[in-house]
Design brief:
The structure holds 2 protein chains of 2 kinds. Chain A is mainly alpha-helical. Chain A is built from 9 helices and no strands. In chain B, helix 5 packs parallel to helix 6. The longest helix of chain B has 18 residues. Classes of the chains: A mainly alpha, B alpha/beta.
């Protein structure tokens, strides 16, 4: 081993990362163009809407309600150190809508939907179903990727909106049942404090995170290696990439929306 | 007619095709034989554009396979994949009628279902399998459904990738007979890749042996046993001794 070997390894790894970024970008651009060019596969789109949206509701609801409740307890406890317990409704609302709602829903979608898309498409690749699609004059990007990407971009903001509401409701339950807040005051403080821009930013984050989750699932599925190990690796890599990109995108979007 | 002219393909350092030259005349059944990993599937997939050759040309009826309207080009082909490659999320009839439910060959749903059931009957399956999912079928039935899907749109050219792999000898015989009957009945050009010599004798008009990335021998199936080619003779006899190295 020469002295320059570690540098060479670092260079190879860097080039690998840059190549992947380039490939993912080209893949995403290609997927977007396929959304707008016929033919359109309505059945695939409807199935994707159902899988990504409707079937994610239980996990999103449970995550949001527990997070909202825990947030209320933490803010009450932290606030009491400087006699600011009364801000619980406002901080739960802003915390859920601006950050925790979109991020937690995004991560849950990454865990549930990205993994399932990657595993399904990777298995299709391994069993030659993707080749079969091509021989049947059906473009795999158009049939598999475009409907899932469009469905995720449209339905994840809805999930985020629902998650925000359920999270705030979790805080409301803890606030009113355990911490002694007056219900009508709690609701009024929440509604008065939230601004339209908070809600819009939350929904935009949802659309971006949905796009990331679907793109990563499709990309790693389509580029899966052979056999069961290939499917496993593709699934793991897709969830890792989606989670990291969602958190990174969240930071960028928060910087964009909330720093003057 | 499908023509391969000096087709090369490498995967990294591994040179799989090293100058394949082959003519498959219209209406004939060509079977390409060769050991595992000799590039038979690569050659077949190169015609369909699933793999892009590094150099050389493949023409279908004189036109470059990589040029022109892809949809119109692919509409001329049917393919039976090694593992069936049926779509898990669709029922059997939706698999068979896949091409008839979308794209340029789209038909009304009822008509597509009727055609699918007729094709299923043609490959020896009863209409009651039409609404099952592929995972509910045995390997032999999945192959038959794959065959029905390959012929559903009445293609001019049909490719068969290892049609009998994984099947018992009786089911292999049934599939071989079906392939032969269908190819003759439809007057289609067929290209089959296999290493099953029983399939070769049942299906082929002509045989080509691929070894070391080139066609070592090609000729009518009737001359296969008296070819005098040491590679082909070793392959037919299944002997470990001969010019083809056997890794033990």
């Amino acid at each position: 081993m020469t002295l320059t070997a570690p540098l060479a390894a670092l260079g190879r790894a860097t080039l690998g990362v840059l190549a992947t970024i380039g490939q993912v970008t080209l893949f995403a651009l290609s997927a977007i163009t396929h959304i707008f060019r016929p033919p359109f596969y309505a059945r695939e789109f409807a199935v994707a809407l159902l899988n990504i949206g409707w079937l994610s509701l239980p996990v999103v609801g449970l995550t949001a309600i527990f997070t909202g409740g825990a947030l209320a307890l933490q803010i009450y406890d932290g606030g009491s150190r400087f006699s600011a317990e009364a801000v619980v409704p406002q901080i739960v609302a802003i915390g859920m809508v601006r950050e925790l709602g979109p991020v937690l829903v995004g991560l849950m979608v990454a865990a549930r939907v990205t993994s399932s898309i990657a595993a399904e498409i990777a298995t299709m690749k391994v069993t030659e179903q993707i080749d079969a699609l091509t021989t049947l004059s059906t473009h795999p990007m158009k049939y598999l990727t475009a409907p899932r990407l469009l469905a995720a971009v449209l339905v994840v903001p809805v999930l985020v909106g629902i998650g925000d509401i359920i999270g705030i409701y979790g805080g409301f339950l803890v606030g009113t049942q355990q911490l002694g807040f007056n219900p009508s005051t709690y609701v009024r403080n929440t509604v008065d404090f939230l601004q339209q821009s908070d809600i819009v930013s939350s929904l935009i984050k949802g659309a971006v995170f949905g796009g990331i989750a679907a793109t990563m699932g499709c990309y790693y599925g389509m580029n899966s290696g052979r056999g069961a190990q290939g499917v496993g690796r593709a699934t793991k890599a897709s969830v890792q990439a989606a989670a990291v990109l969602i958190l990174a995108a969240n930071f960028l979007l928060t910087s964009l929306f909330f720093t003057s | 007619m499908i023509t391969f002219t000096d087709v090369h393909k490498s995967f990294g350092p591994k040179r799989v095709l090293r100058g394949v030259n082959l003519d498959i005349p219209k209406g004939e059944s060509m079977v390409i034989i060769g050991g595992s990993g000799t590039g038979k599937s690569v050659a077949l997939k190169s015609v369909l554009g699933l793999i892009t050759p590094d150099s050389g040309t493949i023409t279908v009826d004189g036109k470059d396979a990589t040029q022109g309207d892809r949809d119109a080009f692919l509409a001329r082909f049917g393919m039976l994949f090694q593992g069936g490659a049926l779509f898990d999320s669709l029922t059997v009839w939706q698999n068979v009628a896949f091409r008839l439910l979308r794209g340029s060959l789209k038909r009304p749903k009822d008509e597509a279902r009727e055609i699918a059931i007729e094709k299923l009957r043609r490959v020896g399956l009863t209409p009651d399998v039409a609404d099952l999912f592929p995972s509910e079928l045995s390997g032999g039935m999945q192959k038959r459904v794959g065959l029905a899907r390959a012929i559903a749109a009445e293609p001019e050219i049909i490719f068969f990738d290892e049609p009998t792999t994984g099947l018992d000898p009786i089911m292999s015989g049934v599939i071989n007979e079906l392939i032969r009957e269908i190819v003759v009945e439809m007057g289609a050009t067929a290209m089959t890749i296999t290493h099953d010599m029983t399939s070769v004798r049942a299906i082929a008009d002509k045989v080509a042996m691929l070894h070391d990335g080139v066609i070592q021998w090609t000729g009518p199936v009737s001359q296969m046993d008296s070819s005098g080619d040491p590679y082909l003779e070793q392959f037919i006899s299944g002997s470990a001794e001969g010019p083809i190295e056997a890794v033990r």
